[in-house]
Amino acid sequence: MLTVAVLISGTGSNLRALLEAARHPDFPARVVVVGADREADGLAHAEEFGIPSFTVPWHEHDSRDAWGEELAGQLRVWTPDLVVLSGLMRLLPPAVVAEFSPALINTHPAFLPEFPGAHGVRDALAAEVAQTGASVIVVDDGVDTGPILAQERVPILDGDTEHSLHERIKPVERRLLIDVVRGIATGEITLTSAS
To answer: Do the annotations mark residue 92 as ligand-binding?
Structure first.
């Protein structure tokens, strides 16, 4: 059984989808802990599903490295097989990436390498492209530059706003995340670092 830690910053919609998938007896992974960089609304999902959680507030640390070391320390307690960044809106320090990657994955609301960074949906609309997408990647030291594990296109419709487009991307992102976690657990997906 693959053990998974999930790190969030917000509402945790991807986290909830993963928790619901993992509730099924035939799903080969279990979320063992949920962490956040603030008092995130998504921590309520962990509580509802009886999953332990922790918070490592960003603003309580003098540096990104100090924050990352405490975060890594919390993760070490649980020795997860896989760490999922699910809407964590902080870049992990290189030492944390080095410790957990390639068993460190992230979801992103764009068809990478198109539109990396915190505003992928907004950037796709601004570029006036016909389609964007969702991706699941291995985290490396770059911004959304790690090896791509799964991705799928999502069309941009006339009249789309950042909100409406993001709402159509989210279900695709959730499905890809669940498929990737299942694939890692069953050995169908092999995690490798960027070369």
So the answer is: yes
Say whether 157 counts as a known binding-site residue. no
Which two tokens mark 94?
């290189």
Q: In whole angstroms, give the CA distance from residue 144 to residue 192.
A: 15
Domains of the chain are: 2-109+134-153+173-186 (3.40.50.170)
Closest CA to 137 of 64, 195, 71, 193: 193
117 assigned to a ligand binding site? no
**What is the pLDDT, as a whole number, of residue 192?**
79
140 CB-near residues (< 8 Å, 6+ apart): 97, 101, 146, 147, 193, 194
pLDDT tens digit string along 55-112?
999 999 999 999 999 999 999 999 999 999 998 988 999 999 999 999 999 999 999 9
Known catalytic residues are 108
